[in-house]
Specification:
547 residues, Endonuclease I-creI, Rossmann fold, 3 domains, six-stranded mixed sheet, 16 helices, globular
Length: 547
């Protein structure tokens, strides 16, 4: 916190300016930059020490680059901590509350540490999710000398800016001072040689298997904000706990009660692998014996102030998504303005038995990378009748499966198509079927010129429309896990803001989908190719001219 105050003082002294205001209104400080990233950091720094801030963007045509400005006022304290430079009556302090039975309680509630910027202003709310993780790792390190634990987040800077700050608060609260922070190698070293390593788990194309984070042995660990995590990172780190001083102490003496290799995962309700692996299994009664799911709503905390609960409730009146997720702990609620297919209609695709069959088709998405699947689908109209999946792409196996489905459902080669990227082109050649080229120009339908980025985007928009009108029915015999994967991937059909000047419609790129789901959306890809045949269907009778 002291470092943030120093940063803010230096910004005001060297890079800030004073905005004089009329009448009795107090002057404001202003910070201006052409870097959006710098603006975000400076706003966070000022807000976290008690200043009221707001932002705006200067987009005048005579400017070469967009210019971002931050207004800083000390008239209202909204920060995480009380700032001495803000009038006491305008700040709120967090008071320590003693329990009636003399015991110590830590509360992990679903709302998490929540920061949102609305209309250029930051609003901050928080609870003890991060506090719980810090308390656990600190006391484990104190009680068991020499153990090694980790704190993982998507980006290292988030650990330094948020989690480490909380750890220092926890240490001060309990009077623990026997530790040092190594800012070069990013770890906390206790006086008894216990370690807490800070790990960045951001996906890197050069390290797809997370070898960098999987080379160290740990006793226990904590994965924070796993909504940001790639699933494979969590899988790799889960295999690294329970391997350092869990069964014996520093002197080699066998522990009477071994330390269980445990990983604490924390997050807010969200739609990603965390929901699938914990919440969904908990609800369905299929959660593995070595896993536990704990959810505590804010209203279940007997020590929470009623005023705080009411404030969160009022925020929820303006934003239903916040209310459902953070107040009610609703994992199934989605209010993503960019999601093209309605969630309710996605859930219905396995029950839409009103959809009738018709012409038969085959669509296939061929794996281009080792982690992708090969998915082959047999269709009757807009009804999926059968799905064949391969974990790895073998050209002979895929060609054989396409031929098998063609014969079974009487599909001519002209109504079978496969992704032509990567080895898919070879499959199309050997099977004699059509090629689907994702980056091809969109297909003109009627007189209007299509306004999509490419053919793939056009098919995704059309598929979302088909789902929303209840026109897709999956009648294939599929395992529950496959059904869940399909629904997850269809929620990822999302529009993205246009960053170019051509105003073309675009969709969320596959790289970001892989980051959210922890895998490639192979089922989605095989499904959206079905749209191609509707776009290419003849709309008029052919006229034959005889000479």
């Amino acid at each position: 916190m002291e470092q943030k105050k120093v940063i803010c003082d230096e910004v005001l002294k060297w890079d800030g300016s004073i905005e004089k205001r009329k009448g009795n209104r107090k002057n404001q400080f202003r910070f201006t930059t052409t870097s959006k990233k710098s603006l975000d950091f400076i706003q966070f720094a000022f807000s976290s020490i008690g200043y009221s801030t707001s932002t705006y963007t200067d987009t005048r045509k005579d400017r070469v680059n967009e210019c971002y400005s931050l207004r800083i006022s000390n008239s209202n304290g909204i920060g995480i901590t009380k700032n001495t430079r803000v009038r006491p009556e305008n700040t709120t302090t967090i008071e320590e509350v003693e329990s009636e039975d003399g015991r110590m309680y830590c509360f992990e509630v679903d709302t998490g540490f929540f920061v949102v910027r609305q209309n250029g202003e930051i609003f901050v709310s928080g609870n003890s999710k991060s506090w719980t993780g810090c308390v656990w790792l600190m006391f484990m390190g104190i009680c068991y000398p020499g153990i090694k634990s980790f704190i993982g987040r998507n980006e290292l800077k988030d650990i330094l800016d948020s989690v480490y700050v909380t750890f220092c608060k926890v240490a001060r609260t309990y009077g623990f001072t026997d530790f040092k922070f190594n800012a070069v190698k990013n770890y906390i070293l206790f006086g008894n040689t216990s370690h807490i390593n800070f790990i960045e788990v951001k996906y890197k194309p050069s390290d797809k298997d997370y070898d960098d984070v999987g080379s160290t042995e740990y006793t226990i660990g904590w994965g924070e904000e796993i909504a940001e995590w790639h699933e494979k990172a969590a899988t790799v780190l889960s295999t690294r706990v329970g391997r350092h001083l869990n069964k014996q102490d520093l002197n080699g003496k066998r522990r009477k009660n071994p330390i269980r290799g445990t990983v604490l995962w924390t997050c807010n309700p969200t739609h990603n692998w965390g929901k699938r692996e914990f919440y969904d299994k908990y609800v369905n009664g299929t959660l593995e014996p070595n896993k536990a799911y704990l959810q505590c709503l804010i209203t279940e905390n007997p020590f929470i102030e009623k005023e705080y609960v009411e404030k969160l409730r009022k925020v929820g009146e303006k934003d239903k998504a916040i209310y459902e997720r953070l107040f009610k702990g609703n994992w199934n609620f989605i209010d993503n303005p960019y999601q093209l297919a309605e969630q309710e209609m996605i859930e219905a695709i396995f029950d839409n038995d009103h959809v009738k069959g018709g012409r038969t088709y085959i669509t296939a998405d061929i794996a281009r990378h080792g982690s992708d699947k090969a998915v082959i689908i047999a269709w009757s109209g807009w009804v999926i009748k059968e799905v064949i999946t391969y974990d790895y792409s073998s050209i002979p196996d895929i060609v054989h499966s396409i031929k098998y489905l063609r014969n079974k459902y009487r599909v001519p080669k002209t109504r079978a198509i496969a992704d032509a990227d990567g080895i898919g082109g070879s499959v199309c050649d050997y099977a004699g079927i059509k090629e689907f080229k994702n980056g091809a120009r969109p297909i003109r339908v009627g007189e209007n010129k299509p306004n999509y980025r490419n053919l793939q985007v056009q098919c995704l928009y059309e598929l979302a429309e088909k789902i929303n009108e209840g026109g897709l029915y999956i009648d294939a015999d599929l395992e529950p896990k496959v059904k869940d994967s399909i629904k997850e991937e269809l929620t990822q059909i999302q529009s993205v803001p246009n960053k170019r000047d051509d105003n073309k419609l675009d969709c969320k790129p596959k790289s970001e989908i892989k980051q959210d789901l922890g895998r490639s959306p192979d089922y989605r890809d095989a499904i959206f190719m079905r749209v191609f045949f509707d776009l290419k269907r003849p709309t008029a009778n052919l006229t034959v001219k005889v000479r």
